[in-house]
Amino acid sequence: MIRQLPLATKPNRQLSYIPEFIIQNITDYLTFLGRFNVQLFESLSSVNEYVTLVLVFMGDANRLRNPHLRAALAEAFEAILPNKQHGGGRTLNSSFAEAIFMHHPLIEHLPRVLLDVFVSIELTGQAVAFEQKFNYRRPMYEILDYLWKFDKHREQVKKLTAYAEEHIDDAEAPLVLRFINLLMNDANFLLDEALS
């Protein structure tokens, strides 16, 4: 069982031989369940392992290099959110979701992992369509909004912010500053588009 993130060890070389479509298939299936078959999703015994998989791979570009797949993991994580209208009109049980968001052993790393993926989408080095970046980031907004209602997660964001304040003059900008910069750029772009 993984107890701490980021993982201290470098990824095993054999991990690079596993096709990414395996993670993509797991992600697609669980996203589908979360949206269209909530009862089956809630009855899965391996939800904790799935959350661990998402946190480990979404939060570490050395373990999963594909930024599009890392963003898809965030979308799959969004399917766990409660009180979200899913296909068929049912919503996910809020006590089920809160148990995951409060008691999973690695869940305290979720805010950092989300911000890291949010920033890395911008830095893919590829010509990702601007609209595609918004599609990737939309589930992250939903998750961050949901996380904000928990003191545990708010404290993690405050720690990241305090770290950013201490290291504001570093050569490489801290994660929170890069996140805020991209968030403001997106907001300015959307406002400009709306006004024109």
From TrEMBL:
Keyword ATP-binding found: no
UniProt EC number: 2.3.2.27
Gene Ontology CC entries for this record: cytoplasm; nucleus; ubiquitin ligase complex
Alphabetical UniProt keywords: Transferase, Ubl conjugation pathway
Catalyzed reaction equations: S-ubiquitinyl-[E2 ubiquitin-conjugating enzyme]-L-cysteine + [acceptor protein]-L-lysine = [E2 ubiquitin-conjugating enzyme]-L-cysteine + N(6)-ubiquitinyl-[acceptor protein]-L-lysine
GO biological process terms on file: ERAD pathway; protein polyubiquitination; ubiquitin-dependent protein catabolic process
GO MF term (any one): ubiquitin-ubiquitin ligase activity
Domain (Ubiquitin conjugation factor E4 core) ranges: 4-196
Superkingdom of source: Eukaryota
Pathway: Protein modification; protein ubiquitination
Pfam families linked to this entry: Ufd2P_core (PF10408)
InterPro entries for this protein: Ub_conjug_fac_E4_core, UBE4
Name of the protein this chain belongs to: RING-type E3 ubiquitin transferase
Organism (species): Rotaria magnacalcarata
